[in-house]
Amino acid sequence: MHYLYLMINLPYAFDALEPVIDKQTMEIHYGKHYKGYVDKLNQVLESATEFHQKSLEELLRDLDSLPTSIHDGVRDFGGGVYNHELFWQVMSPENQKPSDDFMKKIDRDFGSFDSFKESMNKIAKTLFGSGWAWLCTDKGGNLIVMGTKNQDSPLTEGLYPLLCIDVWEHAYYLKYQNRRPEFVDNFWDIINWRYVEKRYENRKNNI
Ligand SMILES: [Fe+2]
Q1: What spacing in Å lies between the alpha carbon of 29 and ligand 1's midpoint?
Q2: Around ion ligand 1, which residues have CB less than 5 A away?
Q3: How does pLDDT run across 73-85, given as a tens digit for each residue?
Q4: What is the C-alpha to C-alpha distance for residues 184 and 20, in angstroms, rounded to an integer?
Q5: 204: pLDDT strictly greater than 90
Q6: Long-range residue pairs from 16-19, CB within 8 A, at least 24 positions apart, any chain
Q7: Which domains does the chain have, with CATH numbers?
Q8: What tens digit of pLDDT does each residue of 48-97 get?
Q9: Measured over all CA atoms, what is the biggest interatomic distance in the chain, rounded to whole angstroms?
Q10: What's the predicted TM-score (pTM) here?
Q11: How far is the CA of 81 from the centre of ligand 1 (A)?
Q12: What is the pLDDT of residue 39?
């Protein structure tokens, strides 16, 4: 098989995010779930050679223009790859806070950090079934929170994702069982705000 996409390395050890996310959850999430999405995306695109030069970001952004033979596979497995690669990178063992500059943008668009956090938490805690909570930016640099089902990507809706919380059960069930709200509350301690801010600065080249 032609491996068009390769797994990225985790930027920290499997146990680095403890106690918020335990080592075994990270090992299974990365080594089984994420690997599964990468393998299946490679299968979907194996014979669709005309799309091999496109980045995953381009494929997801232009999802509606893809042929039916690869549309659902790119949406589900391509989304799974992209979303998880963002998820790995927006987490950090350091306890970071948003910079003053980024905090000003949060205040401008949500009124306050608490109000932003409440909106994001509400989506993450109440999204029915499997999916993701997102902080995104639009072309104008406005910040927006939203949820998506399954592995759907905000890129397909013309938005650029900056931060995400995986609320599929596989992201938290071993440690938190059915207590998704507790996982979401704890997630705020492991956000890599430097990476989120870097994506915000890079957005102009990506949407
Ligand atoms: Fe996941």
Answers
A1: 6
A2: 166, 168, 171
A3: 999 999 999 999 9
A4: 10
A5: no
A6: 16/93, 17/91, 17/93, 17/190
A7: 23-89 (1.10.287.990), 100-205 (3.55.40.20)
A8: 999 999 999 999 999 999 999 999 999 999 999 999 999 999 999 998 99
A9: 51
A10: 0.96
A11: 9
A12: 97
pLDDT of residue 197: 97
Residue 51 tokens read as 């799309």
Alpha-carbon torsion, ordered 110, 112, 118, 123, to 10 deg = 20
Residue 193 CA neighbour count, 13 Å, CB half: 13
User: How far, in Å, is the centroid of ligand 1 from the Cα of 108?
Assistant: 31
**d(CA 152, ligand 1 centre) in Å:** 12
Q: Tell me whether the omega of the peptide bond preceding residue 19 falls within 30 degrees of 0, making it cis.
A: yes
Question: What type of residue sits at position 122?
Answer: K
Residue 38: CB partners within 8 Å, gap ≥ 6? Answer: 5, 6, 7, 81
Look-up: residue for tokens 């980024």? 102
Could you tell me if 207 and 159 are in contact, meaning their C-beta atoms sit under 8 angstroms apart? yes
Token pair belonging to 206? 């990506």
Residue with tokens 């608490």: 114
